[in-house]
């Protein structure tokens, strides 16, 4: 049997994803050990976990360097890569939202200045509502932008809303729901279809039991 290669990010998202796959017989002892190795193998279960940054998971899957990947819907939407999205893993739930200062009034007679780590998502959303924007790409602390006049609004991931509230910002519009997803390389989906479909069927059962 060929190895099943899975890209996964270390951290909460990756750890929860691994626990789900472990329940389906894809256990890997090396994954559970303290190590700096980036490729973790289980000879017994014929699976390799490849540790990458979450934002890089889509390109590893698209290029066929791995068969499967676990990644947030936010990254999928921003990266716009070519692969199959085969399962909603039902954890890591949050949402994209537009937020700004409490007293901000949106003026659509001129482009809205939007600060975000997700420029593609922001452009798609505002285009769908017929509003023009000027996007500023930031890499962190997006909440700061409207506070010091860098932008009118922000587009960001919101889980509890605590960070927005602590910085005097409010949600103006909910955009898209987000959760962790299992994605598959298109060629791998054909060549390893039996094994991948078995995982999909197993996930439906495991996730259903956890809801």
Structure, explained:
This protein has 211 residues and is an alpha/beta fold. The chain has 2 domains: 4-93 and 179-207, 3-Layer(aba) Sandwich (D-Maltodextrin-Binding Protein, domain 2); 94-177, Periplasmic binding protein-like II (D-Maltodextrin-Binding Protein, domain 2, 3-Layer(aba) Sandwich), CATH 3.40.190.10. It contains 8 helices and 11 strands. The protein has helices at 12-23, 57-62, 73-79, 119-128, 144-147, 162-166, 186-191, 193-210, and strands at 4-8, 39-42, 47-51, 68-72, 84-88, 94-101, 112-116, 133-137, 153-158, 169-178, 180-184. The protein has a 6-stranded mixed sheet. Strands 8-7-9-6-10 form a 5-stranded mixed sheet. Helix 4 links the parallel strand 7 and strand 8 (133-137). The longest helix is centred in the C-terminal third of the chain and has 18 residues, at 193-210. It is elongated and about 60 Å long. The two termini are 33 Å apart. GO terms for molecular function: ATP binding; ATP phosphoribosyltransferase activity. It comes from Gottschalkia purinilytica (Clostridium purinilyticum). It is found in: Cytoplasm.
What keywords describe this structure?
211 residues, D-Maltodextrin-Binding Protein, domain 2, five-stranded mixed β-sheet, 32% helix, 30% strand, ATP_PRibTrfase_cat, ATP_PRibTrfase_CS, ATP binding
By CATH reckoning, the class of the largest domain would read: Alpha Beta
Q: Note the total helix count.
A: 8
Biggest beta-sheet profile: 6 strands, mixed
Task: Indicate the low-confidence ranges by residue numbers.
Answer: none
Residues in helices, as a percent range:
25-40%
Secondary-structure-derived class: alpha/beta
CATH-defined fold name of the largest domain: D-Maltodextrin-Binding Protein, domain 2
Could you tell me the strand content as a percent range? 25-35%
Instruction: Please state how the strands of the largest beta sheet are arranged side by side.
Output: 2-3-1-4-11-5
Q: What is the mean predicted local confidence, pLDDT?
A: 95
CATH homologous superfamily name of the largest domain?
Periplasmic binding protein-like II
Count of individual beta strands: 11
Pathway: Amino-acid biosynthesis; L-histidine biosynthesis; L-histidine from 5-phospho-alpha-D-ribose 1-diphosphate: step 1/9
Domain ATP phosphoribosyltransferase catalytic: 53-204
InterPro entries: ATP_PRibTrfase_cat, ATP_PRibTrfase_CS, ATP_PRibTrfase_HisG, ATP_PRibTrfase_HisG_short
Protein name: ATP phosphoribosyltransferase
């Amino acid at each position: 049997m060929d190895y099943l290669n899975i890209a996964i990010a270390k951290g909460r998202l990756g750890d929860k994803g691994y626990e789900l796959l472990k329940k389906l017989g894809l256990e890997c002892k090396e994954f559970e050990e303290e190590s700096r190795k980036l490729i973790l193998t289980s000879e017994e279960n014929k699976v390799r976990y490849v540790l990458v940054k979450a934002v890089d998971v889509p390109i590893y899957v698209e290029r066929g360097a791995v068969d499967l990947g676990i990644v947030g819907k936010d990254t999928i939407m921003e990266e716009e890569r070519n692969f199959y999205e085969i399962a909603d893993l039902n954890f890591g739930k949050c949402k994209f939202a537009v937020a700004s200062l409490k007293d901000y009034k949106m003026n659509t007679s001129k482009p809205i200045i939007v600060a975000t780590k997700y420029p593609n998502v922001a452009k798609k959303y505002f285009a769908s509502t017929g509003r023009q924007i000027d996007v500023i790409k930031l890499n962190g602390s997006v909440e700061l932008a409207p506070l010091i006049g860098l932008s009118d609004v922000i587009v960001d991931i919101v889980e509890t809303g605590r960070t927005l509230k602590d910085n005097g910002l409010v949600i103006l519009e909910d955009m898209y729901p987000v959760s962790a997803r299992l994605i598959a390389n298109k060629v791998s989906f054909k060549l390893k279809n039996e094994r991948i479909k078995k995982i999909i069927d197993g996930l439906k059962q495991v996730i259903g039991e956890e809801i």
